[in-house]
């Protein structure tokens, strides 16, 4: 026993807290708020839950002052937090630093779902990406003809490669009809086949402004392009589905113009290469030193007196909450009894049965619709099969393989040399057109 290191509970909880805080970086978390309490000290305490689990969250006063709203029970929120332990009770918890309503994240969720779907289908695969042509003489640009993007592209091309011709396929790049106009512009470019490469994009904006470039139909059409496509949507930090499906992604419209044009300033290129090499060397040195600095910062932060003070403040809030809960315990019991009676009355209500019947009716309607759709598809496939069989026995198909049919002056089909005489004129029909010939010799068959 003398050589064993025996922990106290306080020491264990303290070292567990330090381990968690040093091990995990700050994370983003989305969930539903429950058990929200705004303490008299100004600190917020609540639980963040989903359908299967929950975790306790503390958001101290110096952080919740910058929040855009005060959360409420049942609200979906998005928080940025670090992982910690409330030492007096040994409870694992999150210390929230930022909080916002999760409604604005709906578009981002839809974006991630579509991205995952198309990636699984192989639309983003690197093996289907094509390099730019070695010699580019004509560039097609799909964007707004009055926006800043087209001006930037033309300016860069005139400076770097004045000989490149620019063909503009105008389209809206924002709004409800923008995605359909982008699709029409792509169809026009595919039909004309007049450019060596296509640039599609616009200037920067919010996720809502750039949403037309996350359209699934647009992405699938871009994947069918006969020429390489460069996606140049927004600024460098903006990412859209078009960027993933395009052959090349450019950070900005100006960068796209630089990609499709050859710069003749070789000296500047050498300077740029040397500068990048120098930056890479510096970055490597910084990368070697950054973990040491980060570790020292984290250790210093974990032992900062402010952390201990926050723990004590949280304990004070916890004791205050316990006192309030005991004072209102009888009132809460009465409320629970009232709620229980209301729930019993609600279960006996005929409205619940009516709602169940309505859901059953809707399910039957959906099943009927799917059955009718499947029946229609089966009939359509059967019709296509019959058309294909009819085409195989058509005499026109035989003619298309190089055969011809000959007729005499009365229009009768000639199938024997005995039906013609020397000097007679016959007509021969081909798959496309017909011609006349005169008999000069007859060779009877065996």
TrEMBL record:
This is Exodeoxyribonuclease 7 large subunit. The keyword Repeat does not apply. Its EC number is 3.1.11.6. Residues 123-437 form the Exonuclease VII large subunit C-terminal domain. Bidirectionally degrades single-stranded DNA into large acid-insoluble oligonucleotides, which are then degraded further into small acid-soluble oligonucleotides. It comes from the Bacteria. It holds the Pfam family tRNA_anti_2. Residues 7-99 form the OB-fold nucleic acid binding domain. GO terms for molecular function: exodeoxyribonuclease VII activity. It is found in: Cytoplasm. Residues 351-381 form a coiled coil. Keywords: Coiled coil, Cytoplasm, Exonuclease, Hydrolase, Nuclease. The keyword Nuclease applies. Heterooligomer composed of large and small subunits. Belongs to the XseA family. It catalyses: Exonucleolytic cleavage in either 5'- to 3'- or 3'- to 5'-direction to yield nucleoside 5'-phosphates. It comes from Alkalimonas collagenimarina.
